[in-house]
Structures are given as structure tokens and as C-alpha cells.
Amino acid sequence: MGHTSLEKIIALQKKTPHIRNLCILAHVDHGKTTLADCLVASNGIISSRLAGKLRYLDSREDEQIRGITMKSSAISLHYTTGNEYLINLIDSPGHVDFSSEVSTAVRLCDGAIVVVDAVEGVCPQTQVVLRQAWLENIRPVLVINKIDRLIVELKLTSQEAYTHLQKILEQVNAVTGSLFTSKVLEERAEKDAEAQSSCTENGSGDQVYDWSAGLEETDDSDLYFSPDRGNVVFASAIDGWGFSIHQFAEMYSQKMGIRSSVLLKTLWGDFYLNAKAKKIMKGAQSKGKKPLFVQLVLDNIWSMYDAVVTRRDKEKVEKMVTSLGLKVMSRDLRHSDPKVLLSAICSQWLPVSQAVLSMVCEKLPSPAEISAERVEKLMSVGARRFDSLPEQTQELKKAFLDCSADETAPVIVFVSKMFAVDSKALPQNKQRPLTQEEIAQRREQARQRHAERQAANQSAETLKGTELNMLPTALSVKTAVEEDNKEHFVAFARVYSGVLRKGQKVFVLGPKYDPSLLPEGCSAADVLPSVPHMACCTVDSLYLLMGRELEELDEVPTGNVLGIGGMEEFILKSATISTSPSCPPFTPLNFEATPIVRVAVEPKHPSEMPKLVRGMRLLNQADPCAEVLIQETGEHVLVTAGEVHLQRCLDDLRERFAKIEISASKPIIPFRETVIRPPKVDMVNEDMGKQQKVAVIHQVKEEQTKYPEGVQVDSTGLVTLTTPNKMATVGVRAIPLPEEVTRLLEDNVELIRTMEQFSLFAWEDKTLDINQKILENIQEFKVKLESNLQGRKWRGAVERIWAFGPRRCGPNILLNSVEGYRRPSVWQCLEREKETEKAEIRDFDNSIASGFQLATLSGPMCEEPLMGVCFSVETWDMKLSAPLAQQDSIDEDSQTAEPNIDNQNESSDTHETNASSASSNRSRSGAEAAGSSVDCYGPFSGQLIAAMKEACRYAFQAKPQRLMAAMYTCEIMATAEVLGRVYAVLSKREGRVLQEEMKEGTDMFIIKAVLPVAESFGFADEIRKRTSGLASPQLVFSHWEVISSDPFWVPTTEEEYLHFGEKADSSNQALKYMNAVRRRKGLYVEEKIVEHAEKQRTLSKNK
Ligand SMILES: Nc1nc2c(ncn2[C@@H]2O[C@H](COP(=O)(O)OP(=O)(O)OP(=O)(O)O)[C@@H](O)[C@H]2O)c(=O)[nH]1
Ligand SMILES: [Mg+2]
């Protein structure tokens, strides 16, 4: 370690008010790690000459090679300004693929340094990280980095640069402003609602809440970034300088005899210096004067760059150096690269570490200042109301707020991720320099060993058994080597209360742990092996995180970031550790990235499969966002957030976790299957139904073969199917959901899960106390669904929802349209008080829902999940207990089920209905005949599930089917020269440009585009190559989009034949995608590989 000794840091760890936990956040490449280097150098851990070049916190080899950060890593620094501070700094990655690492960092901090590139300004990830900081209630400060680029690259004058910087500040503040207003509005609504409910509950109308807390009154002045508030630093991390206007205010107040508080208020803004009157006046812009910031601050820097870098004026440089009172080494003065001299001067004159660290200590809160709001957010268990948590749990809120390191304070620790370290890197295994005595001791030992060996050798000649004796030692050596290579996991954590000690007994609480399930009156001393998601263990080792190094600690008091060893058995990815079993698990981290890129991996040598399996398990633990799973086909699949992330995971597997050669398949592209309303125009944009169908006969023939015997399909798409034992018949119809509804369902997965949980509880006659805000959200969700499901066919549909699927929360709906069947609503959590008339659940209700779940999990096109489909169960006849009594009602069923349903051609309606009811009658009489004979088809519920699943699949096939493709959005920044090439790449890959605009103050264009995931592999690389590195896009998953072409399409009209030819397989993208998926899954692919097995002929008549 450098200057600061371990003892010093340990002492500082105990002074909670003087601790700052912070992370550095920014868009990719805006200079986070470079800035961190400067801060690390200020502690003497690395040389200040190397600061900015070393990127010390990028400790992985691939991070250094690629030049981007992939893992967040922490380091503890020491800083003195009057007071001594301990700064726990976490550097985070900026690439979208690793945004989960940002989430894990943000959770452990109280503040953040948001870095913005002075040229690029606010970028997509800047907005994302600002939102993340906001969601976690941590306070940000701003560093505008790379100011040198304004001088050297853009060649702006100081005045232009000032305007440019103002714009950047405006942009950043606009982002925070929008976050703030949305939150204030939300909060006000919440408070109104709570106040109202307390009025109605108490009847007395106690006004507990401040009604006036509106947008106008709420204090937002702390929120915005402004240099005069001291929360902005201007910097060039690579050249080692940075300043806040405080420093210049101090400097000039002595020189000019103006109070520094006045300068502080006027250095930034529309003020100028009236030289004659020696006064600072307002209105620089209107009077055409130089603003104070330009005159007193920027001009100095500009002239420094001018003298050192542009003109290389030695004399002037020397003059400046002496006037600033700096010392520059002569070898720097003589160096051929002017940047070396520049950073030597500037890092003394305006050291960036000084500016940033003093801002951090002043403006960011200490761990003790944690807000009640944040605590409640961290502690909320799922959808529960805070006050419905057990009393002991609620009491812990105080422990959070106290943040006390007392003996009596409960220990509360949150682990946000697990990271792997080589066992060699652990401090206990590290080689340290030997002392003189130890060297002497070892020499003595070696001498003894040598003597023993010689003695043994002599006796070996006489004794044959020695070889056997040698064996065990050889073995033990081998296991020691294996032990050496073992991966050790260290938990990346923070203490929120109490003191965590080595050897302490603690509870490890999984993310799904629920303190209310705890038996009454148990304490930490009890062993509670039976409580789910809870384990009891002893703290093995504690580490201080120092970037690439770890230092061993005996205890860590509250408010500090730390590493915990020996937890890999108990923690998968994240967990809460506490001495109190009533501690709630922390709310799960919110990840911004959706894992979407999947590959199948296999070992090069099949015999190494177990190693791969073990490696995948370790990888899963070490990466917050990667998922590993085994598909039904037996493939081992790795799911990652993007291409770069995938590459890193594969490298990790090869080199660290599995240590074998592996081969990865091409990325598996996910699709969704859906149905749409019958299209109005055909493939050549002609109105349907007007042309002569050439291939009608051909089609009809196909239609008939599509459905096996026993499946009845009417022309409106109602599918009726009977179980093999003929006991039950279901009639199902598939209806496309409006796009908005699908989106609503997707956006509200969590709410649907909560509703599902509530229903499960209700099933067991228990109740779940759902937090008021979530209830409101559910209510709102319901209203939105109702307003989007308008029209005759959807009448009352929202009330009749039976289930969501797949996995009970997906974007498909099962609708109960069975006449006379009223089942408990999925919305029952909203109707607690009303206690509506008892709805009965029919036997086997669950089987129908399960069939639906299975059907939506994998569709008939290529076994991909369904999306945006509503299955309406219109008939459900059972012939179990009272066959005759039911028969009448069933007859009614099939006739009255019509009104709610989407019918394209009304005329055929009645006719078909009769047919279907007739058919159901027929099947019923069959069932009667089968009567009570022994069922040879297996359990009835299983039969019903299978029948329901099949019915859904056929109903799906009776409608026009489409594939849906996953889409990325990307923002590409490019200069005008390369714009054309960017467009070319985009259109080649079926991308669609949404927006193009010029970035103010630069010659850059920002292009927003969407691109199918299927076409995205290598996209970023291609763009980079085609634009010689000037544009590098970041792809973020955005949504699913219906591919308009029909995969089952065959040309039927004259025009289509003319246009596409007889086979028409050249341009059908959907078909290509579908066949690719089917081929991968080993499903039947209908393809003609060779059409004419003859040599190609020239069809010229002349020959
Ligand atoms: N001109 C200039 N370049 C800088 C400055 N700071 C950093 N850079 C360069 O910007 C590039 C990215 O710097 P990093 O520090 O790796 O950026 P980062 O934000 O950590 O990137 P990620 O971790 O991948 O998100 C490097 O090539 C740096 O040399 C600066 O102040 N001026
Ligand atoms: Mg970095």
C-alpha cells in the first residue's frame, strides 16, 4: 500500500460522519476510470505520472485491452481538509451491457460523481445512471470532464466554450428536473390518497399530512447542478487538472480584494467586471462584455494550453510557472511531448483530486445521514405495507437511521454481488517479504530436510516399502495445488448498522426471505434451519477493498464498504446479512438491462462436461446479470445482456471458471409468436378478395390436413376438442390483443405477480396485506386495461380474465367466456371490503389454466413463447358427476357464447354455431357411452390439461400467425462525413431510423434507430469499422415487434405469382427466421432442398 497505512484506514472507518461512500457513474468512455486514477494517485498508491494512463481500477486484462470497464471495483482513499475523511470509491462501467454492475455499485453508496464528457454532453447512459441514482435516493455531484477537448479538438474560444458548458449543464439539469417533477407529482398523489384513506378510516379526518406539499412549494434547489452551489467540477482528468469555482473565488478574492462569497455568487452567470469602477456588474451578455467566468477562469486555462501545447513558448511557460509559484522538473520542461509538461504544470496548479474530493466531502452525505425514505424503500418486502411487517422488523428502521456502531446495535449488511478472486490474491496467501530471522529459519529448515533426505535415501536401498510411503505425500501435494487454483468468492457488501466481526454468527437472508414467516419469539441464539431462504453461518474473513488488492480486517464498523470471504456456500448473487432474524431482505436491485443474447455452450471434449457445468455455476454466481440454464434439449445455455458481455462471460468461462476449451453456438435469437387480425391487403399491396385466387384449391387442401381427427374448427376460428376419455369438451378461440394491451401487460408484470400471489393466499384462506400504493397501481392498471379493451367483443372482458400466461404473468390472457360460470376474479385483491357474492370455483379449473400456461409457453410455429394473444374459453362441458343435469346447460352454452366474440363474417355465424353445438352433442353422447368405464387415458386432470393445450394451439393456428422479433434501439453519434455509411449499415441490417438531429454546438449528428436483435451481431463492430472508429453505437433492448410478412404465405393471386415466382421463398424473412429456429430445436422443417434434380438447362428455344 502507498502512503496511507492500514491502521490509519481502520481508525477512520470508525468515524462514521467522516466516511463518504460514492461511485463514479457516466456514459461509456466519458473518463470515469481516468478520473479514479487521479484520485488514487493523490493517495500515493500509484505514481501521479501514470495517473490516467494506468487505469488502475481496470484490473482485468480484457478491460485493459478493450479500454472499457466491465466490473465495478472499490478502493478506500484518505483525504484531509481540516478534517480527515475516508472515501470509499467505486468505479463502475459505462457500457450498457454491464449496467447491472452499476446497480450493484449504486446500492452500496450514499452519493455519486456523475461524469459528463464536455464534447459529447448528455448521452443515453448518462440519463440512465442519473435515473438509477435517483431511484436509489443517492445524491449526485457533477464533473464535466475532457474540457481539454474543447480547446485542442474543437478549437473553441473561451467564450464559445462557456456557452457550450452552459448548454451541457442545462441538459443535465433537464434530466434531473424531469425525474424530480415526476416524483413530486407521484408523491403528492400518494399523499392525497393516504390522507383520504385515513379520513375515511378514522372518520375524524385527522390531517396528518401536509396538504400543501405541491410542486411549487417543494424545495428543489438542492437538486440542480450549478457551479455556484459547489456541486460542479470542470476537469480534464487526462491532464490531471480540475477546479470548482470555489478555488478561483479564493484565489481572486485576495488578488482583487473582493470578498470570496461575492465572487462565488458571480463567477458563474451573467456577470462582468467593470474595470473602471472596480465593480462586478450584471448583464454581461446584453452589454457584450466578457462574463466573469471567461475572464477570470477560462482565459487562464486557454492561455496555458496556448503557451504549452500550441505555441510551445518556453519563455512564457517559465514565466507562468514562476508566477503561479509552481515547481516543474527540468526533464518535464525538456520533454518532447508537450502534454507531459502540461500535466506536470496543471496537476500542481489545479489538482483534480483536490477539487473533486473536497466537493465530495462537502456535498455528499455521510452514511449516518441516511434518509427515512431511503430506509423504507430498502426495507420493503415485496408488495407488503411497511406497517404490516412484524413489529421487530419495523423496529429495525431505527437501527438503519441511527447507523450506530454500538455493541447493542444489530448488524445489518447488504451484499450486492459476489466477485471471484484468485486464491493467490487473498491476503492470507500473499507472499510478503521475509524478515531476516525468517530467512535464517528457512535456511535451517532446508538444511535439515536435506540431511533427512540423504538419510532416507541410504535406507531406501535396503527398504523396499519406501515407495509406498512416498505416495501419500505426492497426493497431498497435488490437492494443495488444486486448492491453490480454486476460485474464491468475495461478497461485495456494505454495513448499514452495527459492527461486523470475524467469527461472528450471522443469519444470511436470501432475496425471497420473509420475516413474517418467522415463528414467534425467536432470537439470534436459536438455530432456525427450517425457515426458508435463511441460513446461519460464521463470518469467515473480512477484507478492505483496495482496487486490485485486498487487505485483511478483523472488524468493519457501520457505514463502510467491505468484502466478505467464505460466503459462496450461502449466497448466490445478493443477500442480506444480519444478527437479527427479523431483518427484512433488502429490495432487489433494479437492473436496467434485459438479458437477451443467448448462446448454447459445450466443451470441446465431451468428457469435460462436468467441468463446464461447474464453471457455468461459478459464472452464474460471479455475474449479477448473466443467467445459465439447461434447455429441454439438454443444451447448456448462457444468457447475457449483449455482445460484449457475452464475450466477457465466455472468456471468464474459458480462463477462470471451467478452464477448458469450449465452443459456443451462434447466438440464439429469441422470437415471440402471435396472431393478428386478418390483413386487408396482400403481399403486393392489393386489396384482399378482389383478385382471382389461382391456388385456392391447393390451399383448401392444406387447411384440411392441418387438423387431426376429433378437432372441430369452425370458420370463425372456434376450436372444440374433447378429452380422450370423452368426459370433457372445451371450445377455445384465439383473439389478437390490441398492441397497447400487450404493452400494458408487459409493463406491469410485477403487479400481475402480486395479484397472483394474493390469489394464492386467498386460495389457502390467508390474506396478504398489500401496500396501498401497489393497490392503487393495480387499480390504475385495471382501468387502463378497460379503456384499451373497448368494443363489442371485449365487453366485460377485464372482469372475466381467468389467468395471465405463460408463467402466470406473461403478456397473454385467458378469458372466461363460459356461460354460467362465475369464478373468483383475478382482481379480488381490489375488492377486499366489498365482499362480492361468492363465486364458486369449478373442479378442474386449474387444469384449464395449466393447459393455457403450457400453450402460451411454446407456440405451434416454432415452440417460442406466445405474446399478445387472448384465448377465450367459450365452452367447457364436463360429464363427470352429474352428466345429465349438465347436459342442458351445456347446450345453452354453445349457443349463447357467441355475442362477445370477434366475428369477421356475421352471416356464417349462426350456421356454424349450430354445427359446433351439434358436434359437441355428438361427442357427449360418445362420452355417455363410455360412461363409467375404467379410464385408460391416465388421470383426468392431465387429460384436460392436454386437451386445453391442444385446443389453444389449434385455435392459434386458425388465425393469421406472425412472428415477433426482439428489437434494439440505438443511438449513434456520427459526424456528417460518415453519416452516409452509418445509414448504409443500418439499412443493410433492416434497421429503421427514427430520428436524426444535430447536436448543438458540435458537428455531430445523433441518429436514433431500431434494429432487430437478429440482425445485430457484429453491428457495433461494423459501424466502428465503416466510420473509422468515429461512431460506436450502444444497443439497448427496447421492445418486440410483429414481422409483417406471413411465414406460411404462398402466392395465391396472379400478381403475387408474377411478383414472387412460384416458390416465393426468396424474400420471406419470417419464414427464414422460423425455419432457423425449428432447425435449431430439431423440429420438422418443411423445405424442398433440391427442386429439380437435373443439371440446369438453358431454356433458350434456339438450342
Ligand atoms: N482528451 C481527454 N481524454 C480523456 C480524458 N479523460 C479520459 N480520457 C480518455 O477517454 C478514454 C476513456 O477513458 P476511461 O477512463 O477508460 O473511460 P470510462 O468512463 O472509465 O469508460 P468505461 O469504464 O468503459 O465506461 C480514454 O482513452 C482516456 O484516455 C480527458 O480529460 N481528456
Ligand atoms: Mg472505466
From TrEMBL:
Domain Tr-type G per the UniProt entry, residue ranges: 17-368
Biased composition (Low complexity): 914-928
GO terms (BP aspect): cytosolic ribosome assembly
Keyword Hydrolase among UniProt keywords: yes
Gene3D superfamilies: 3.30.230.10, 3.30.70.240, Elongation Factor G (Translational Gtpase), domain 3 (3.30.70.870), P-loop containing nucleotide triphosphate hydrolases (3.40.50.300), Translation factors (2.40.30.10), Yeast translation eEF2 (G' domain) (3.90.1430.10)
UniProt-listed PROSITE patterns: G_TR_2
Keyword match Protein biosynthesis: no
One GO cellular component term: ribonucleoprotein complex
Database matches in PANTHER family: ELONGATION FACTOR-LIKE GTPASE 1, TRANSLATION ELONGATION FACTOR-RELATED
Chain intervals with Basic and acidic residues compositional bias: 441-453
Region ranges (Disordered): 441-460, 885-928
Keyword tags: GTP-binding, Hydrolase, Nucleotide-binding, Ribosome biogenesis
Superkingdom of source: Eukaryota
Recorded GO MF terms: GTP binding; GTPase activity; ribosome binding
One Pfam short name: EFG_C
Record-linked InterPro entries: EFG_II, EFG_III/V, EFG_V-like, EFL1, EFTu-like_2, P-loop_NTPase, Ribosomal_Su5_D2-typ_SF, Ribsml_uS5_D2-typ_fold_subgr
Bias-annotated ranges (Polar residues): 896-907
Source organism of the structure: Cyprinus carpio carpio
Name this protein carries in UniProt: Elongation factor-like 1
NCBIfam families: small_GTP (TIGR00231)
